[in-house]
């Protein structure tokens, strides 16, 4: 038996497994219930968010032997073949590999034939924005009056590249970047089913670094499992992702506002020994400053959000610095983030930004 990576093994087979997209799923469920089936769906969203999975789920729901359904039976031959990617009436085209008109024409020529086994012949065109101008024109002709037995599902990461003439004929489903909470819940669910030990903080770190994409989160989880010998451990994940712990960032900021040069040097000495994701570091620093400002404005509200230990730290630090200074530090780090691209090394950029903040603190 070949090993299936987590990204493939846990690809959604049911609509409810597509996390963080409640509104879109409700829209599809209702349209199936009301039999308001569209001719052309256009699914957009960032990479790894579930566009192709959603396209395949719609195709399966439309062709289940038990009728058009939001809950395909998974047991009829159409559902099973759809799950194995060998359903004869589901044609998937990767527009990134086949941009030319000749190929698209060849595919579109098959439209006149009725479906062999399913209710509909379904064409999924992935990365549709990559089609050439001529290919889009050929597609447009079909979309103007698609045969009743045919459905199109187009998917793209770059919605603004879709010609208006095509866009206006589509039922647009815009998938949202997935919230951290949903990614963590799904990872917990998967790892429990995989019977794997995990530390909650490690999943938090993975979700933070996933760029709101479930596929990224699963790829990182796979790496973490290999690194941790089938365990997901916070210290290893933290090293793998180059993440500086929030307590260290807190210590650094405290050292800055107290103009504690020795502590700043010690921070850089520690960081020199490991690989650090400096952009993530600056983002966390900005979030911390934002939270301290909020704390100064609504100390009572933050009582409900922060854990007790963190609350006490916020209380102490917010007494040592004015809101005005916090805003100035925020600006220094926010503008500094742009320097990451241009500096000879990201580490040098961050050192320079922190030195700038240090000079501000002693003046
Ligand atoms: Zn079925």
TrEMBL record:
It comes from Wigglesworthia glossinidia endosymbiont of Glossina morsitans morsitans (Yale colony). GO terms for cellular component: DNA polymerase III complex. DNA polymerase III contains a core (composed of alpha, epsilon and theta chains) that associates with a tau subunit. This core dimerizes to form the POLIII' complex. PolIII' associates with the gamma complex (composed of gamma, delta, delta', psi and chi chains) and with the beta chain to form the complete DNA polymerase III complex. Residues 37-179 form the AAA+ ATPase domain. Belongs to the DnaX/STICHEL family. One of its GO terms (molecular function) is metal ion binding. DNA polymerase III is a complex, multichain enzyme responsible for most of the replicative synthesis in bacteria. This DNA polymerase also exhibits 3' to 5' exonuclease activity. It comes from the Bacteria. Keywords: ATP-binding, DNA replication, DNA-directed DNA polymerase, Metal-binding, Nucleotide-binding, Nucleotidyltransferase, Transferase, Zinc. One of its GO terms (biological process) is DNA-templated DNA replication. Pfam families: DNA_pol3_delta2 (PF13177), DNA_pol3_gamma3 (PF12169), DNAX_ATPase_lid (PF22608). InterPro entries: AAA+_ATPase, DNA_pol3_clamp-load_cplx_C, DNA_pol_III_gamma-3, DNA_pol_III_sug/sutau_N, DNA_Rep/Repair_Clamp_Loader, HLD_clamp_pol_III_gamma_tau, P-loop_NTPase. This is DNA polymerase III subunit gamma/tau. SUPFAM superfamilies: P-loop containing nucleoside triphosphate hydrolases, post-AAA+ oligomerization domain-like. NCBIfam families: dnaX_nterm. The gene is dnaX. Its EC number is 2.7.7.7. It catalyses: DNA(n) + a 2'-deoxyribonucleoside 5'-triphosphate = DNA(n+1) + diphosphate.
């Amino acid at each position: 038996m070949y090993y299936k990576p987590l990204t493939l093994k846990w690809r959604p087979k049911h609509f409810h497994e597509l996390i963080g997209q409640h509104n879109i799923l409700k829209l599809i469920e209702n349209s199936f219930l009301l039999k308001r089936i569209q001719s052309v769906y256009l699914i957009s969203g960032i990479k790894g968010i579930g566009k192709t999975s959603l396209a395949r789920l719609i195709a399966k729901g439309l062709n289940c032997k038990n009728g058009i359904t939001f809950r395909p039976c998974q047991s009829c031959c159409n559902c099973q073949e759809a799950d194995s990617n060998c359903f004869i009436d589901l044609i998937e085209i990767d527009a990134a590999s086949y941009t030319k008109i000749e190929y698209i024409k060849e595919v579109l020529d098959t439209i006149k034939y009725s479906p062999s086994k399913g209710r509909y012949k379904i064409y999924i065109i992935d990365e549709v924005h990559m089609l050439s101008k001529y290919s889009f024109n050929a597609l447009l002709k079909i979309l103007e009056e698609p045969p009743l037995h045919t459905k199109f599902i187009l998917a793209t990461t770059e919605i603004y590249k879709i010609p208006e003439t095509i866009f206006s004929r589509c039922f647009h489903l815009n998938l949202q970047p997935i919230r951290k909470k949903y990614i963590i819940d799904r990872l917990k669910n998967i790892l429990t089913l995989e019977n794997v030990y995990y530390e909650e903080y490690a999943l938090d770190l993975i979700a933070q670094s996933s760029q709101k994409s479930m596929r990224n989160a699963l790829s990182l989880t796979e790496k973490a499992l290999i690194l941790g010998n089938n365990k997901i451990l916070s210290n290893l994940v933290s090293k793998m992702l180059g993440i500086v712990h929030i307590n260290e960032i807190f210590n650094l900021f405290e050292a800055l506002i107290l103009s504690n040069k020795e502590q700043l040097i010690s921070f850089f000495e520690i960081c020199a020994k490991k690989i650090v994701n400096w952009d993530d570091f600056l983002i966390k620093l900005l979030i911390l400053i934002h939270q301290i400002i909020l704390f100064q404005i609504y100390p009572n509200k933050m009582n409900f959000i922060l854990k007790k230990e963190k609350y006490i730290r916020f209380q102490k630090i917010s007494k040592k610095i004015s809101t005005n200074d916090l805003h100035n530090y925020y600006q220094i780090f926010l503008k500094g983030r742009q320097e990451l691209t241009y500096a000879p090394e990201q580490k040098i950029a961050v050192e320079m930004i922190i030195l700038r903040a240090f000079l501000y603190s002693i003046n």
